[in-house]
Every structure is written in C-alpha cells, then in structure tokens.
Amino acid sequence: MWKEFKEFIARGNVIDMAVGIVLGTAFKAIIDSLVADIIMPVIGLLLNDISLADMKYVFKPAVVEAGEVVKPELALNYGNLIQMILNFLLIALCVFLVVKAINKMRTMFAKKEEEESEQAEEEAKSDEVLLLEEIRDLLANKDESK
Prior knowledge:
The protein is mainly alpha-helical. The chain folds into 2 domains: 50 residues; 94 residues. The chain contains 4 helices and 4 strands. The strands form 2 sheets. Strands 1-4 form a two-stranded antiparallel sheet. Helix 2 crosses helix 3. The longest helix is centred in the last third of the chain and has 47 residues. The protein is elongated and about 105 Å long. The protein starts with a helix and ends with a helix.
C-alpha cells in the first residue's frame, strides 16, 4: 500500500495540481487585495461614501436598555450579498484579463517559433532546391501572362 501511495504522489499530474493550487491561492490573494483595497473604495466613493456591506433593511431595531443590547436587531443584510456578487464579478473579470493576456503571449511565442522554424527551413535548403524553385516560379509567371 505504501508503494502505491508513493507512485500516486510521484505522478506528474498530482505535482502539477499541487503547484496549480499553490499558485492559485497566491493569485487569489492578489486579486482579493485588488478588489478590496483599490476597486471597492473607488466604488464606495462613487456611491457617496456608502459601504455596500452596510446596506440593510431593518425589520425590528435593536432594543437597548441601560447601554446594553437586550434584543439584537432583526435585519435583512442585502448589501453584503451585493458586495459578494460584485466581488465575484470583479475577480472573474481580473482572471479573464490575465488568461487572455497569457493566451495572447502564447500565440505570439508560437508565431515567433513558427517563423524561426520556417526561416531555418529555408536556410537549410540547398542551392539546387532554390534554383529549381526559381525556375518553377518563372514558369508559373510565364503561364499566367498568356
């Protein structure tokens, strides 16, 4: 059983998944900070210093006697739901933009590698092949001009 466990752990998929989870957790911390520390204060400023998380509808206010809360308030905290939905949408947007940028970079690198391989392929052609290609192109141009 120990041997099977070691084989399972040593598989590339498990290690890749572990690395992905660690990086995902670090990325989540960055995005959470971006949303909480930069974007949400700007949104609060646009809403006249109203915190979305503090928005609520009070059914019954708290009963306070002699400075102590006898009965806590009964309230519908809809602002917190709005805040979490907004956080989700902003985080999803940030992840989308990062993935889009990564895909664009991959495409650029793939094109660059393709161009380099084509260039290397042309450089590898012998003089005889180049001469034959020139003759072919000249004959094709001659046929088109008729």
